[in-house]
């Protein structure tokens, strides 16, 4: 079926929407985009609360126009989110698929990260049509250049680091800021570049602590700096270890800030509202057109969709070019800077 046929007759008449895994700002925009697209196309929309656990337990609400009114600008997820140990078993998946059949749910929009997509793939094997929407502050999903929530989380962290920089400057201190990102350093890189950090530590780039951290801080101090900022991705090394080692090696008064779950909250920024709304609408269009086992994604500024198995097989590249350029600009390394010009 093609999208123009959908207006005449949708392939699905009742769908469910759920959010699963860690929440991210913009989830509500995606819920609203999907719910309103469904309403537009004459598809009944059910909100499944508490992720896959709620699907098994039948924790449902009606997601009509009034239920999603005014949620685009709200952080968190109105549908709650959870991790279900039962759903991670074959019996749990079968039970969830049985609930869909029993309730006449002919398609599911699942909003979350790759764990959420793996669950969706399992369900699709029981003939439940599914479409995934990538949503995590980590931006670590291989199939898409952007995940909903990343921009807001970056801005939240940048705002915090800017504030820390003020007081670090007054007291001539070193600030170590641990940011989230799971096993990836995308969030740390963007935050570090945006705040002009002294050093960024990410799991993707190996470092020798003495040479790449302590010596660089000493060099920066000799060059006249009196305050320093180290952004460390949680996947690279615990922030407290970084702070302890810097204090011990340099004697500089060092303070640790772990931004933690603050990065996951707050009103979504424009990009997350817009991408969330667009992906929500696109997910429903795919189900209405008879597609299943797809993930809505972005390639640059364009929206695409791809098979969920392919989506799960892809890994996200780290932006090494950006990382090198950042170091070159921070430490006025002309050779590296010229090299990155050549390669770009
Ligand atoms: O995946 C999103 C994320 O916020 C990671 O950055 C972090 O490691 C993890 O979730 C924290 O999960 P929890 O909500 O279980 O503390």
Q: Outline of this structure?
A:
This protein is an alpha/beta fold.
Secondary-structure topology with pairs:
Layout: H1 3-6, E1 14-19, H2 27-40, E2 44-48, H3 51-57, E3 60-62, H4 90-103, E4 107-112, H5 114-124, E5 130-134, H6 150-171, E6 174-179, H7 186-195, E7 199-201, H8 209-222, E8 228-233, H9 239-250, E9 254-258, H10 270-288, E10 294-299, E11 302-307, H11 308-313, H12 320-330, H13 334-343
Parallel strand pairs: 1-2, 1-4, 4-5, 5-10, 6-8, 6-9, 7-8
Antiparallel strand pairs: 2-3, 10-11
Helix pairs in contact: 2-10, 3-4, 6-7, 8-9, 12-13
The structure holds 6-O-phosphono-beta-D-fructofuranose.
Describe the structure.
- This protein is an alpha/beta fold.
- The protein is 45% helix and 17% strand.
- It has 13 helices and eleven strands.
- A seven-stranded mixed beta sheet has the order 3-2-1-4-5-10-11, sandwiched between helices. Strands 7-8-6-9 form a four-stranded parallel beta sheet, with helices on both faces.
- Helix 8 (209-222) links the parallel strand 7 and strand 8 (228-233).
- It is elongated.
- The mean pLDDT is 95.
- 6-O-phosphono-beta-D-fructofuranose binds at residues 22, 113, 136-138, 180-182, 234, 264.
């Amino acid at each position: 079926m093609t999208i123009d046929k959908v207006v005449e007759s949708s392939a699905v008449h009742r769908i469910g929407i759920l959010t699963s895994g860690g929440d991210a700002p913009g989830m509500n925009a995606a819920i609203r985009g999907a719910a309103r697209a469904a309403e537009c196309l004459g598809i009944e929309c059910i909100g499944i609360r508490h992720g896959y656990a709620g699907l098994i337990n039948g924790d449902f609400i009606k997601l009509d126009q009034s239920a999603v009114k005014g949620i685009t600008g709200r952080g968190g997820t109105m549908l709650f989110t959870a991790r279900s140990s039962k759903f991670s078993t074959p019996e749990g998946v079968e039970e969830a698929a049985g609930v869909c059949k029993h309730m006449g749910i002919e398609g599911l929009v699942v909003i979350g990260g790759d764990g959420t997509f793996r669950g969706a793939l399992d369900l699709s094997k029981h003939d439940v049509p599914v479409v995934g929407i990538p949503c995590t502050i980590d931006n670590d999903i291989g199939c898409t250049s952007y995940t909903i929530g990343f921009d807001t989380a970056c801005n939240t962290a940048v705002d915090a680091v800017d504030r820390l920089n003020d007081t670090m400057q007054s007291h001539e201190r070193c600030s170590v800021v641990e940011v989230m990102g799971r096993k990836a350093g995308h969030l740390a890189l963007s935050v570090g570049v945006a705040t002009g950090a002294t050093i960024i530590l990410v799991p993707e780039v190996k470092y020798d602590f003495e040479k790449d951290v302590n010596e660089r801080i000493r060099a920066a101090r000799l060059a006249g700096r009196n305050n320093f900022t180290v952004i460390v991705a949680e996947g690279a090394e615990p922030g407290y270890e970084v702070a302890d080692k810097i204090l011990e090696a340099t004697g500089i008064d060092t303070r640790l800030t772990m931004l933690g779950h603050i990065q996951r909250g707050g009103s979504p920024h424009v990009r997350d509202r817009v991408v969330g709304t667009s992906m929500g609408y696109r997910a429903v269009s795919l189900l209405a057109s008879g597609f299943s086992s797809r993930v809505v994604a972005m390639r640059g500024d364009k929206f695409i969709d791809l098979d969920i198995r392919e989506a799960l097989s892809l890994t996200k590249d780290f932006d090494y070019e950006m990382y090198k350029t950042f170091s070159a600009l921070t430490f006025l390394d002309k050779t590296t800077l010229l090299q990155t010009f050549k390669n770009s």
